[in-house]
Write a structure and sequence with these properties.
764 residues; alpha+beta; 9-stranded antiparallel sheet; 5-stranded mixed sheet; 28 helices; 44% helix; globular
Amino acid sequence: MKFRQQRSTTLDLALALQRELTGRAGSWELTFLPRPVTPQADLFRAGLTSWARTAGSGLPAFLAAARRPEDLRTLVDDDRLRPGTELVTTALTAAAPTLADALPLFEELRKQAAVEVNDFLAPDHYLAPLCAALGTVDTGRTLDLHLVPLAPYPPATGFLTAAGKVTGLYADCRRFRGPTLADAVLTMLGWAQLKSGHIPEGHLSTELVRRMPGGAPYRRRLRVILTKILVEMTAGHLVRAVDSAHRPCVDVLGTKWRYPRLHAVAERHWSRYLDGDTGRDEALTAMARDLTAHSPRWFVDHVDPSSLAADFYLLEWLTAAGDRTAGARLFRWLPHLCAELAGHLDNVIGNELGHYERARTQHHPQELADFITQINQGDSRVTWQRLRRELGHGRALQLATEAFAGPGIEFGGEAWAPVAAMVRRYVRHELPDRVFVDQCFTLEHNNGSLFDKYHDTSTMREVLDAQAATDLGKLLTHASAEVRDLWNGQHRISAEHHHPRWLGPPSTTPTVPPVPTTPTVLTTPTVATVPTAPSTDPGIAPSERAGGSGLPGNTPGTVGCGDRSDPSAYDPSHDPLRDSPVRVRHTVTRRPYSSSLRTYRAATAVLHTEHGDIRLTLRPDEAPYTVDNFVGLATGSRTWTDPLTGTPGEGGFYDGTDFHRRVPGFVVQGGDRLGTGHGSAGYRIPDEIHPERDFARPFQLAMANLGRDSTGSQFFITLAPAPHLDGHYTIFGEVTDAPSERVVSDIADSPTAVRLNRVTVSTA
């Protein structure tokens, strides 16, 4: 299966609009369509939903064939797609003038990407080994490849389909670059090859079903994820043949970290096949043997770092109590635990550095400004690995710390600065291993546990509280079976040598409580290969220590396995949950509200504009933090940063600003000292979406944002019902009288920006 590069302006527009509405990685990413979006542009969501009922997860191929959005109506040949096509056409027509101005900014990047893909992926180099690995045949099909500058993320790649068949694919050449882009394209070609409809003998899907049969949800899920890992590993291997420094996407983009146990098995056997050290059948048979030794749940469920923490703290306690067996176990485990935690944090730091694409760096040292600019050229996780090698690990982590503590403050970076500083101290051998591990478990970022991106952290706080309170019984409920056995052994020895005459009554130290047969959480990365000890060279990256291996204990019940259940819970023939639905990981998200809230029983405000006064009634009972933020900015009682100078502001933030956005019949928007719609007061606060408040009536006062929990200083007033905004923006007030409504309408009709002279506030 080959590809030919194509270009479609309409597809570019559609993917850019989809990214703006539903597929940005976060509020920190650049936006090109002003928010809140107009009702016409928002119809795109409904159009996609309508298409999905027929076209599935791919986009209709005729989208790429249309020269203009208006042509879509004439190209659709399936009546089931017509309603969605009407909505999409209307949305694209409304958004096109704005997005069409943004797309040319990436033209040089697209041209460079086209050359890179052709250089990396010559068909005579990848086609035969890809077909051999997947067990498919070359049917001679050629797919259209669209390198687009803006695509929804994740995954920033996707398929184009017609009549249920894949006809093309797209990849975001702005996010994926160089070998990473080639890896992403080759991964998509691999999936297309598997979906081609030809099922020859040896087809990967057939081989996995034959070796691991069964239709239970966990069994099916295991095969799907394993297929994903094998395709990604194969793509990464083929790209590494061209660029030996390439770090495969299966590692740096997260699949390895989400399913570490399953990836460990695949890496142990499939990598030997890819390197030519064993045959394909032998590799698949060996994988199946390892995977059928335990329940599919063991390999599919997400890991639980709270179990790791419980194991670590209890082994420390037993070692301090003189248990030599526990001390030896901790000594053997600690280097691997440090390597895994450091590698995990290294990857997540790279991810978090991508939050500062919007950061205004002109007021910061040039080296830091260049670092932030470079880290956001492409996927930050990939760029971080490269810059870390080029700059040296210590210097790179120092710049990461400064980025978090400086321009990153606006997007919660102050919580990540100590994390980067901690990893830097560990890399420089300024932290002992045990102190480093303890800090990994106890330090938190703005959403809680450091491990919440890839692992199930729902009980992490419970374990940390138990450790702080020396609640050993609670720690035992989270520990692995091996640690519980060590604990029982120590307790028995203590009881045998206890002399009541001289030592008083026996200790009431808790014994192991009953352990649930169903694991509430699973834990951290485990790899079955025996890792080497961490290097003492400070030039070795955290993720490269211990030879890149993960934690030992790839067996249920062992120290560091990351699970609290007894090994019998994962017996493949007696697993009580083998036919249960697959558990979904729920990320625990904290909303970092200010601790210095000023509350008001009532509050009103008057916006004194060039066109007259706008009187507002605020709602401190429904949105207390938002009202406090608005009042603080309006009166100058809250500290803010001037985006024009980068220095602390003085007086009222809104004084002298403009209503920079005016859409008749929709909204007027202000509160940006830059006047561009991209400014803020130097910080963000969470949303306060009231369940009984909506945009059914006009003249509602709400805070603009860049996505979930990214409210800053900008506010808007609606001029008509806008139900498409419900649930996305904090409504914290409304216009109170008819004269004020007329002023708002006049501002919306103004052809030029309207000055907001000052804001007066009255509170009770």
